[in-house]
Amino acid sequence: MRAAVVTAFDKPLEIQELPVPEPGPDQVLVRIEASGLCHTDIHAARGDWPVKPAPPFTPGHEGVGIVEKVGSAVTGRTVGERVAIPWLGYACGTCSYCVSGRETLCEAQLNTGYALDGGHAEYAVAHAAYVVPVPEGITPAEAAPLTCAGVTTYKAVKVSGVRPAERAAIFGIGGLGHLAQQYAQIFGAETVAVDITEDKLRLARDLGAAHTVNAATGDPVAEIQALGGADVAIVLAASPRVLEQAHASLRRGGRLVLVSLPKDNAMRLPVFETVLGGISVIGSIVGTRADLAEVFQLHAAGRTRVGYETRKLEEINQSFEEILSSEVTARLVFEL
Amino acid sequence: MRAAVVTAFDKPLEIQELPVPEPGPDQVLVRIEASGLCHTDIHAARGDWPVKPAPPFTPGHEGVGIVEKVGSAVTGRTVGERVAIPWLGYACGTCSYCVSGRETLCEAQLNTGYALDGGHAEYAVAHAAYVVPVPEGITPAEAAPLTCAGVTTYKAVKVSGVRPAERAAIFGIGGLGHLAQQYAQIFGAETVAVDITEDKLRLARDLGAAHTVNAATGDPVAEIQALGGADVAIVLAASPRVLEQAHASLRRGGRLVLVSLPKDNAMRLPVFETVLGGISVIGSIVGTRADLAEVFQLHAAGRTRVGYETRKLEEINQSFEEILSSEVTARLVFEL
Amino acid sequence: MRAAVVTAFDKPLEIQELPVPEPGPDQVLVRIEASGLCHTDIHAARGDWPVKPAPPFTPGHEGVGIVEKVGSAVTGRTVGERVAIPWLGYACGTCSYCVSGRETLCEAQLNTGYALDGGHAEYAVAHAAYVVPVPEGITPAEAAPLTCAGVTTYKAVKVSGVRPAERAAIFGIGGLGHLAQQYAQIFGAETVAVDITEDKLRLARDLGAAHTVNAATGDPVAEIQALGGADVAIVLAASPRVLEQAHASLRRGGRLVLVSLPKDNAMRLPVFETVLGGISVIGSIVGTRADLAEVFQLHAAGRTRVGYETRKLEEINQSFEEILSSEVTARLVFEL
Amino acid sequence: MRAAVVTAFDKPLEIQELPVPEPGPDQVLVRIEASGLCHTDIHAARGDWPVKPAPPFTPGHEGVGIVEKVGSAVTGRTVGERVAIPWLGYACGTCSYCVSGRETLCEAQLNTGYALDGGHAEYAVAHAAYVVPVPEGITPAEAAPLTCAGVTTYKAVKVSGVRPAERAAIFGIGGLGHLAQQYAQIFGAETVAVDITEDKLRLARDLGAAHTVNAATGDPVAEIQALGGADVAIVLAASPRVLEQAHASLRRGGRLVLVSLPKDNAMRLPVFETVLGGISVIGSIVGTRADLAEVFQLHAAGRTRVGYETRKLEEINQSFEEILSSEVTARLVFEL
Ligand SMILES: [Zn+2]
Ligand SMILES: [Zn+2]
Ligand SMILES: [Zn+2]
Ligand SMILES: [Zn+2]
Ligand SMILES: [Zn+2]
Ligand SMILES: [Zn+2]
Ligand SMILES: [Zn+2]
Ligand SMILES: [Zn+2]
């Protein structure tokens, strides 16, 4: 099978011909149909983060495909079924996080496309209990971005506690933001979309944003405060300055949800405003299998639209460059 | 009557002889028996904060005393009753915050000892609906510190969501911290007390702390993480470094509650750890009348101990110095 | 002014000519434009409930109109403004319920059209703090049903905790049910509408129901369980049998919200299924001023449709009969 | 090994000599040290419930003992460790309930001592992921009652949402009730104990009850309402009349938690009071592995006292009679 392989953090990925892997007793073998490209893949391939993966490995945690084999101990999954292989490739299943509905915090978790070989290949093995079935009526190319971009923004909206008659400001309407906006609306909120290009603001309006702010030409803090302030701000743009604007756009009792990781890993949190305003800042990381099942269910019910562009696996290195140069804003999906 | 009056932000307070004020239709006149000194009084007297009070005024928002007169439209309060006059001197009663149980966020609020003359005087008038009855069995000198220090830490513990079988770390065991620790225990938590003097750690142990850490000689982050990390950290020490230690002492899913206002008003929030750890940072500001009633109820039931030292009103300027020099750690209470 | 007056529980209402009332210091005088007829008005007029109103009185707690006078102590309301006068005509503002966002539980509350003269008249006085402004773009005739039917069902949906990717079953698609369904959808739920006439089920489908069940010809429990069961069931039909069906249609972890009051005031609660299924049964009573403001905000934003028919005040006795005979299912609104 | 075996629903249990079972790949073999007797064991042995177990089988879901063997695929458990084998013997680990922290609602669950052979034997096999380690400092005889009676009442208190400055009424101070009372106190509540014997009320006072009511000689509804009503009522006595008293003892906003299963499986729920009082009735069924770990942690920290009496396994049939005749009120524990 062909696989995109990281051989070293300072080298481009190689498309290698590798043997199709064999699933262990608790695993399934999945023939990948589509695999979405997440910014995290680039961090993985370059070893950007403190705990690094071990080359050679195949990145990708938005792999979607058909189960071709099931391990001897697998129950619940069957050959021929379409599944998604998300970031949470394995968790212990017994720690206090796993048992209390917070499996994405499991200290023993293994992540797909990082500690485990991922979806940027023709085949992948995955722990059967951690793949999520893709319901009828969702194409592989749509399911792929939902598998990380979708569930991550869905979870961010969920933990924000946003509800009808509240206002949610979404900072950054790209591959993640256009989904965050839709989920905020599904939770009943009025949305304000903030971005720096008119294209994306137009998309936000098409998707139902009540207000849009062009942060290149206007002041999002002033404009959102003029509306009465945001109850919730969700930040998909990885810049400390945007984080601070998002905080400043909140009304009292507001909640700022952090999803993206800025380069220098720091936000200057204004303590006075946080305390007097009764503001919460909430870190949110991907979502559980149950969250992903909900994401798929909402899409199958026609509640969301997914923007994406397709690429060939052979284009993976150029695709990295496209993302880094912000040439594309929709999710890139490798079709296999 | 005698009153401690701020005449200018750069002058000491004066003890002046003023006429006893007359309550308006919705107000009560309270003969003050005890009035606690809060660090906020010093900020008020010096005009430290962006929105400043207007001299001349009398600070104090822990005034406790006996109702001597009630205004013509007052219902619910009666002459002879003991009441406390807290920081929230007035709120609009009709905005979304007031109606939804978050009156301390009311944009129209007036604060006692700041916008309204406060408790550091022999008499004070107060909006009848915003004083809170002090139940039998609580002395004025105990009730005073509960009126701000008590309810502020009680609320901080409440919004932390801490519960039995969780671990709460309290950073700073002074006038606020020794109460925060007790409330965390009443909510069922195991507590870790962090301070830099053995005296205070001894007090914390007396009050039931399961663990204590001397941050002058040890590393609170390492010691708390060795216990498994804190589910909740409450910071009463107004230093950015302590805020960062408190954040770092959390386990995944942990919650950091901000109460104190550091000098330069900024905390460096580590975004990566906040997102990956699913951590929340929660600003908490005093508490509602209902919270204060609960604080009194718990004290009347014998569930809390209040540390305080008494002073004369004439000693108010020296008392400010005592606090600023950290000579005393218990709450100072003026007896009148 | 003309007013519909209950003179005795066993007599029809009389249309009397009464002097226009004078607002007290904390009250407003409202010139009524539209006043919705709620089933509770009939219970009030007939003295059906244990705590009875005292004739003569004017029922009506969906009165909408223009402020014509404000009392001397009123702040916040101005002459010329459109307001609604809901069931919660007055609450104490200081008890634990009022202060914690649950004013509809206040033991000292006074109810409009019951303890206080209500909206079925050309003018009404109301406590200024408890009227709710009607935003631009909502007609009086639409605002009226929202003032009780709207906020009651909105609150029922709110306390149900329903959220996206959950299924809500609405039992009874009449004046309340068609609103409950819309609110459940605004909170993100997939809805199942249950009724016994095809007309109402057609309305439910128009409003976006994913499924409908005709309980006259089919078995709602079997049909809803075939879908996977309901996460939430909201019962607007005042029959013990429907309550029991609603309970039986829940999936594990489901929540049954009680709103309507059946004749004999009893539901047979199956304890085994409640315990094993981890089911909650939640009583919900109208909503707060904040809830009503949200209801208006959602309608002004075009998120809800209100079904109603207009009547003349003189037709009030016939209108009672229409409701009792189930001839109409939409809300009746008196235009004044 | 010796095991207590149900051979038919209408016969006494037999003590049989059976081969020691062999653990499957995901199982452990536990040498039982103590096994608590729960009323559910009697229902299991007599086939009282709609879904019946299949004789021959061994009841018991409070088995505590030492791991003697681990299956080939087991991780996390080691030989020599002390564990408890609770009612939730197996759950699927992947359904929406399992993944969202509500594994006790899993539709695929298998229950110990019911579908799976249980703890009333010298050895038991158990699914490794569903046993819970017993920490140092807890004896097997104490751990046993905590494994069902403890976690069941702990969960009931947890779902009640009770908190400091609230009042919890516990109806029935027996093997479950004395634990429910302690947990309510650990969550910060003031407790009222209701029972019909002075012995148990004395125990309740020893354990810290603020009030006790003898329901044989007094009226619990009147006495609790005289205190201000209960915020929470937890019913461990399986009688419809007690359920109705518990409901009537609530104040507005109160929550009634159902745990016990009355004979005729019905409670008459007063709808009017439930709706007007904003009351919730909450079914609660045992607890998760995480809940049980918390129960053990609290006991190891010295926060709870467990009342029990020991019996020999051979006395199981007499022990059933003792429980049915209410001769004993403490938990009976077989020592092996
Ligand atoms: Zn990703
Ligand atoms: Zn885990
Ligand atoms: Zn203060
Ligand atoms: Zn307000
Ligand atoms: Zn009504
Ligand atoms: Zn009230
Ligand atoms: Zn049991
Ligand atoms: Zn399951």
UniProtKB/TrEMBL annotation, chains A, B, C, D:
<dbReference type="InterPro" id="IPR002328">
    <property type="entry name" value="ADH_Zn_CS"/>
</dbReference>
<dbReference type="Pfam" id="PF00107">
    <property type="entry name" value="ADH_zinc_N"/>
</dbReference>
<dbReference type="InterPro" id="IPR020843">
    <property type="entry name" value="ER"/>
</dbReference>
<keyword id="KW-0560">Oxidoreductase</keyword>
<dbReference type="InterPro" id="IPR013149">
    <property type="entry name" value="ADH-like_C"/>
</dbReference>
<keyword id="KW-0862">Zinc</keyword>
<comment type="similarity">
    <text>Belongs to the zinc-containing alcohol dehydrogenase family.</text>
</comment>
<protein>
    <recommendedName>
        <fullName>alcohol dehydrogenase</fullName>
        <ecNumber>1.1.1.1</ecNumber>
    </recommendedName>
</protein>
<keyword id="KW-0479">Metal-binding</keyword>
<dbReference type="Pfam" id="PF08240">
    <property type="entry name" value="ADH_N"/>
</dbReference>
<dbReference type="InterPro" id="IPR011032">
    <property type="entry name" value="GroES-like_sf"/>
</dbReference>
<feature type="domain" description="Enoyl reductase (ER)">
    <location>
        <begin position="8"/>
        <end position="334"/>
    </location>
</feature>
<dbReference type="InterPro" id="IPR036291">
    <property type="entry name" value="NAD(P)-bd_dom_sf"/>
</dbReference>
<dbReference type="InterPro" id="IPR013154">
    <property type="entry name" value="ADH-like_N"/>
</dbReference>
